[in-house]
Design a protein that fits this description.
Strand content: under 5%
Oligomer: single chain
Number of helices: 15
Number of strands: 0
Largest sheet: none
Structural class: mainly alpha
Distance between the termini: 70 Å
């Protein structure tokens, strides 16, 4: 048997042993008996997994060794008993999310259905972390994006999109101006930068949203297949999630039973609770996102160019800098609406950053222009 396979099987065995012992420690330290029961059931699943890997080793004539936890696990278990489980939940949620796909390419695990269990663990621990106030980073980002409704999120996207166009095109225009190019060349360069940047942003946004939709659709299809193949396991997982959110076991089971009387409702609930997806949205419309990105970038990018449509020379450069400065102040002030920072601080910081970028490219343009001359 290849050495790599031996190492892999032993690491799988040890990982499940460590997980079971850690969840047992969390259950012992947890004062909320509903959560303690969730931890115990997770520990039982981990122990079943460790037995599975022990048998895989034994079938190959190898002894799995004692089921002793590693030093890191012992330290974390002690930490949980001393300070309570809640402080460990962000770390646990991160680790479970990181390891949720570790069995996807291992044939023995796939045949035994272990990948689904791992993903289920990640979702359950995230639900527990949410209830305890210890949200992992990914969930926190998701909630922050929803906080205040869609309007706040749309404002953030609009401001950042316009800022990208403004700063990038101001830097481009000032770089060409620094090379002592004539006003017509600067105008053409600015317009070309506007169109090229807006198209690039629109294409990137389309790809991003479309890829997110395709991923979500694939996840929903996988969930649908799992619901058809193992409805009882899916129901049990939903019960655990509801328990993790604070429901009594009896209430959680009753609610899950009602939901599972209708397959469509069951799939919709599993998609929302397990995957964190809204089946009706799936990230939005790609073409609408692309058009919005194109427009917002263009709005920002037009400010450095406007002056060169009506005047020339140093006057045009001065007006371009002034108009861009006003736009930078407006954008910086707008960011204060969703960052909570002082308006003057946000506007001043944005102005300084935009002008610094323009000054650098102007200097580079001047050096290149002098060198060419």
């Amino acid at each position: 048997m290849p050495e790599d396979d031996i190492i892999r099987l032993k690491e799988n065995f040890q990982g499940e042993v460590d997980g079971a012992i850690l969840y047992d420690a969390l259950a012992d330290a947890e004062t909320d008996q509903k959560l303690a029961e969730v931890y115990r059931r997770l520990a039982a699943i981990e122990r079943a997994h460790s037995e599975f890997w022990a048998k895989q080793l034994e079938r190959r004539g190898l002894h799995p060794g004692g089921a002793a936890p590693g030093l890191r696990t012992r330290s974390l278990a002690l930490f949980a008993r001393l300070f309570g489980p809640s402080l460990l939940l962000p770390l646990l949620a991160h680790n479970e999310a990181h390891d949720s796909a570790k069995y996807d390419n291992q044939a023995e695990a796939v045949a035994a259905g272990l990948p689904k269990d791992e993903r289920g663990h990640a979702r359950i621990v995230q639900a527990v972390a949410s209830r305890a106030g210890g949200l992992p980073g990914s969930a926190l980002m998701q909630l922050e994006g929803r906080h205040g409704g869609g309007g706040g999120n749309a404002l953030r996207a609009a401001v950042l999109g316009a800022n990208d166009g403004l700063v990038s095109n101001l830097s481009l225009v000032m770089g060409v101006a620094g090379a002592s190019a004539d006003s017509r060349t600067i105008l053409l360069t600015g317009l070309a930068g506007l169109v090229a940047g807006a198209c690039s942003m629109a294409m990137g946004e389309w790809l991003s949203v479309n890829s997110a939709r395709e991923l979500a659709q694939r996840q929903i299809a996988t969930e649908s297949a799992e619901l058809s193949q193992a409805p009882e396991l899916e129901k049990e997982e939903l019960v655990l999630i509801y328990q993790a959110k604070g429901l009594e076991e009896r209430q959680a089971k009753s609610l899950a039973e009602k939901i599972f009387t209708n397959r469509g409702a069951a799939l919709d609930t599993l998609v929302r609770e397990e995957l964190g997806l809204d089946p009706e949205e799936l990230g939005g419309a790609p073409w609408a996102a692309a058009a919005s990105s194109f427009l917002l970038f263009s709005i920002g990018a037009i400010f450095p160019v406007i002056a060169f449509l009506f005047t020339r020379g140093t006057l045009a450069v001065g007006i371009s800098i002034a108009l861009s400065g006003l736009a930078l102040i407006a954008i910086g002030g707008a960011t204060s609406l969703f960052t909570g920072r002082n308006f003057i601080f946000s506007a001043g910081r944005q102005l300084a950053i935009g002008y610094a970028a323009a000054a650098i490219t102007f200097g580079v343009g001047r050096l290149i222009g002098v060198s060419i001359s």
